[in-house]
Every structure is written in structure tokens, then in C-alpha cells.
UniProtKB/TrEMBL annotation:
Annotated region (Disordered), positions in chain: 175-195
Recorded superkingdom: Bacteria
Protein name (database record): Amino acid synthesis family protein
Ranges of biased composition (kind: Basic and acidic residues): 186-195
InterPro entries (alphabetical): AA_synth_put, BB2672
Organism: Rhodalgimonas zhirmunskyi
Length: 195
């Protein structure tokens, strides 16, 4: 199995007090982290890439732990998502290797009773400086419209052609002026990850 070689990490915490409406009593916080790693499969076709999933698990746990800390503890996390930008010498399938290590890491650290919804994700091929909109949904129920969001992630010098930029994102509540209706977070049943 190849080693996970991290070139750099980037973290960001955004606090949104209002979007033209009244100022919130507390800000809506959106945290994201990006790890830029060497793509061990860049420049060649490798039929068996699944072993790298296990290699990525410790990185997923580290990143999820740092995001939880940025939001002040797992009890504050209400939304999450994941994504990957694969450099030009790789394939989108290399970004798909992040699905399990990234998603399960967040769910493991948040706990089974606090994260029933599937972790939404996105991935693409991109050059240096590429940006990615990572989707966000509520951690317990994917149909909670107030928590639908997307967080743009990226780095000015990544991914290089032989790299992958792996992203995890978390939020601590609904959009600051959410009023689009639908299932309210207070009405979640928590049975199936949808409602």
C-alpha cells in the first residue's frame, strides 16, 4: 500500500452574521479543511486502487477531529460534506477513494446517534488553483432544507498534476437567514438519515 504523503493542509473558519437581513444573535459558522496529498496513481492506470482507502483513514480522522475542534465540539456540528479535486495526471476515480475515509471519519467522531444522514460529496479533475463547491446537508436528515449549503474550497497552488486535494467541511447550524420551508431540524425523526 502506498504511503499518504501530505504536502500541505489548509483550514478555514467562516462566521456569517447576516446576509442583508437582521444580524443573528450568534453567527452561522462554516469550517473546512483541505489536505493536498501526492496521488500514488498519477500518470498511470492502476486496476486495483481500493487498498489506498485504508491508507487514507487516519488522515480522514485527523481532519474530522480538527474541524470538530474548530466548531467547539461535536455537539455543535449540524452539517457536513466532503470532496476531492484530482490533479491532471489522475482520474476522477482517484477522488472517489475519499468517500469512505472522509465520510466515515466524520460519522465515527460525531457518533452513530448524531450522524445518520449520508455525507454528500463531489469530486472533479482540476488544475492548479481549481476550486470545488462541496455540498452540505444536515448530519441527521438529508431533507432538512435549512441546512442545504455548499462551501467553496481550494488552494492557489494545488492540486499539481500528481496531487489530490481532499476536503472535509462542517457547519454548526442552518443558513443564517433560512426561510425556505421543508422539514425543520426540530422535527427530525432520525430513523433513516432522510427525515
Amino acid at each position: 500500500m502506498p504511503d499518504v504523503v501530505v504536502r500541505k493542509t489548509i483550514k478555514s473558519l467562516e462566521e456569517i452574521w447576516h446576509e442583508g437581513g437582521p444580524r443573528a444573535q450568534k453567527p452561522y459558522r462554516r469550517a473546512w479543511m483541505l489536505a493536498v496529498i501526492k496521488n500514488p496513481y498519477a500518470g498511470r492506470y492502476e486496476p486495483d486502487i481500493q487498498p489506498f482507502i485504508d491508507d487514507l483513514r487516519p488522515l480522514g480522522l485527523q481532519m474530522a477531529g480538527e474541524l470538530i475542534e474548530m466548531l467547539g465540539g461535536k455537539e455543535n456540528v449540524q452539517g457536513y460534506g466532503k470532496g476531492a479535486i484530482v490533479g491532471a495526471d489522475g482520474e476522477v476515480e482517484h477522488g472517489a477513494l475519499w468517500h469512505a475515509p472522509g465520510g466515515y471519519a466524520m460519522r465515527e467522531l460525531l457518533g452513530a446517534e448524531a450522524s445518520k444522514a449520508i455525507v454528500p460529496s463531489t469530486k472533479k479533475l482540476g488544475g492548479v488553483g481549481a476550486r470545488l463547491d462541496v455540498p452540505v446537508t444536515h448530519v441527521m436528515a438529508s431533507y432538512v432544507r435549512s441546512h442545504f449549503d455548499a462551501i467553496e474550497v481550494g488552494c492557489n497552488d494545488a492540486p499539481k498534476a500528481d496531487e489530490i486535494a481532499l476536503a472535509l467541511v462542517m457547519t454548526d447550524g442552518p443558513r443564517v437567514h433560512s426561510r425556505s420551508g421543508g422539514l425543520d431540524a426540530g422535527d427530525i425523526k432520525g430513523e433513516d438519515g432522510l427525515r
